[in-house]
Amino acid sequence: MDRILILMAAEEYADAQPALTSAMNAAAAPDALSWGLTLTAEPDEDSMAAMQALGMVHFLCPAADLWQCMPALWHGESYVLMAHPAMRFTKGWDRELLRELRACPSGQVLTCALTGYLPVREDPLTSVCPVAADAFTQEDELTFHHGMPLRFAAGPTRGPFLHPDFCFAPAGFFRALAEGDEPLFMRAFRHGWDLYTLHRPIIRLLWDVPVEPCRIAPTHDLQEDFASVFGVSFASRLLSAPARRGMLSEDVKLRMRVPVSVKVRETYRQKRYAIQRKLKRHAVQLEPKCVTLYTSQMEEETLRWLKQLAALKNLPLVAYVEPLQVRQIAEFLPSVHEFRSRHAMELPVEGLDGLEKLSKAALLSTARDKYLTPSHYIWMDADAIRYPVYDRAFFDWQAICTDRIVMAMVNGVPDTTMFCVPEKLVLPLARDLQARTLTIIEQRGSLPEEHELWDLVIRENPDWFNLVVLPVKGQLFTLVCEN
C-alpha cells in the first residue's frame, strides 16, 4: 500500500497523541504510515517513548507553519494527510481516502485534493460539508462557513476552497503549496490543482475546526480567473450562489446514491407509524401543518430549496407568497396563498425593514385561522433545509410535536429557520412577540433583531419552550427524519 505521511500541529505531543493513536489503530495498513509533527513544547521522555512506539516520527520544535514545514518533514511518502488533534478515524480510513481521491476526475496525472469541513460527533447528519464563502467583512476579508452537506452524494464534489486542517492529496500537492504568501486555495488554483470535498465521513471531529478569514487584493493577478471559474470576486466583493454552497455546480441537486438501508428504514418507519395510529393508545393523532413564506426579494437559491421542500412526500406544506408569484409557486406546490401586509405583525409604523423575519409567528396565526384541524403549526423558512433529502423519507413528527414550542439553539442563539408550535400556543406566542416588538419600537424607534426578540420571549416564558441544542442551523429537521 502507498505510504502516507500524517502531518499535525499541536502545543505538545500529549495533545496530538489521541488522534495519532486513533489513526494508527484504525488504519488498514498501519505500517505504511509515517508522522510529521510541529510542537510548541519540547517533548519530554514519556512523549519521546510514545512517539517511538508509533514508528517513523519526525518533529520540529518550536512550531512553525505546518504547510511550510511539509518539505522538511517529508521523506518520500506518496500521499500526505493534513490532520488535526480533534480528528478520530474510522476503520480502514487510509484505504478509503485513497479510493475516494482516485475517484476524483483527473487526467493521466492525479491533480486533485480532498478537503472539507468534517462532521463533529454531535452532528446528526454526520455529513462532510464543503468550505463555502460566507460574506465579505468591512475590512474586505472573506469569511467562510459550512457549505451544503454532501448527504447521500455519490462522489466527491469540486469546490473553490480548502480547509487548512484537513486535506488529503499526493505529496506533490503539498510541496507545491509549501511556498507563497497567498491563501492556500489560491496557491492550489495557481498550480492547477482541483479541490474536491470528501463526501463520506471517513474521519470525524471531536470539536469543530473553523477556517480563518482571508484577504486577497483586488489587483491579484489571478483574481479575475478565479472569479470566472468559481463566482468569487474579490474586486467587486460578489459571491455566487454555488460559492455560498462551496460548490462549482449551479444545481443544488447532487448526483445522489441513497443507501438501500435508508430506503428500507424509511419503509419500515412508515409502516410502523401506520400500525401505531390504529392502536387505542394513539387515539390522539398528530396533524402538523408546515408554513413558509417566499417573496421576490429572496435569493434565487431560496426558490430552489423551496422546490425541494415541495417535492417531499409526507410533508404538509403551505406557502404564503406575493400575489404576482402565486401562479409560479402553484406549479410545484398546490397549497399556496397570497401574502398580504395584514398577515405580518401589526405595527403602528409602516415600511420597516426586517418586519417579515419577525412575523413568522404571525403567519402561523394566519394559517391557524385558515386550517382549523392541525394539532401543531411548524414554521419552516423556504430554504430551511439546505441539504439533500431522500424524497420518499418518512417524517415522524412526534419528535417535535409536543405540548411545548420546540426550537433549536445553535451557539446559544435561537434558530428560527424551523420551529414547532402546538395549536394552543400559536396565538399567545404571536401576541407576545408583537407586544415586545411594540415596546422596543417605542424605546428606540426601530425594530429589534430577530434573535434579540426571541431571546426575550424565551427568557420570560421558559415554560413554553423545549430547546434543542444543535451544532449547525437548520438541523431541527433531522429530529423528524432521522430518528
Q: What does this 3D model show about the protein?
A:
The protein is of the alpha/beta class and 483 residues long. Helix content is 33%, strand content 20%. The chain contains 16 helices and 21 strands. Strands 3-2-1-4-10-6-11-9 form an 8-stranded mixed sheet, sandwiched between helices. Strands 17-16-15-18-20-19-21 form a 7-stranded mixed sheet, sandwiched between helices.
Distance between the termini: 39 Å
Measured by DSSP, the beta-strand proportion falls in 15-25%
Largest sheet: 8 strands, mixed
Low-confidence stretches: none
Overall structural class, as computed from helix and strand content, comes to: alpha/beta
Spatial order of the strands in the main sheet?
Answer: 3-2-1-4-10-6-11-9
Q: Residue share in helices?
A: 25-40%
Would you count the extended β strands for me?
Answer: 21
Q: Compute the average pLDDT.
A: 89
Specify the overall morphology.
globular
Work out the radius of gyration.
25 Å
> Total number of helical segments?
16
Write the layout of secondary structure elements.
Layout: E1 4-10, H1 13-26, E2 33-39, H2 45-54, E3 57-60, H3 66-73, E4 79-82, E5 87-89, H4 93-103, E6 112-115, E7 131-136, E8 142-146, E9 157-159, E10 167-170, H5 171-177, H6 184-190, E11 194-197, E12 203-205, H7 223-230, E13 232-233, E14 238-239, H8 241-245, H9 260-278, E15 288-294, H10 300-311, E16 317-321, H11 326-330, E17 336-338, H12 355-358, H13 360-370, E18 376-380, E19 405-410, E20 413-422, H14 423-444, H15 450-460, E21 465-469, H16 478-481
Parallel strand pairs: 1-2, 1-4, 2-3, 6-11, 15-16, 15-18, 16-17, 19-21
Antiparallel strand pairs: 4-10, 5-12, 6-10, 7-8, 9-11, 13-14, 18-20, 19-20
Helix pairs in contact: 1-2, 13-14, 14-15
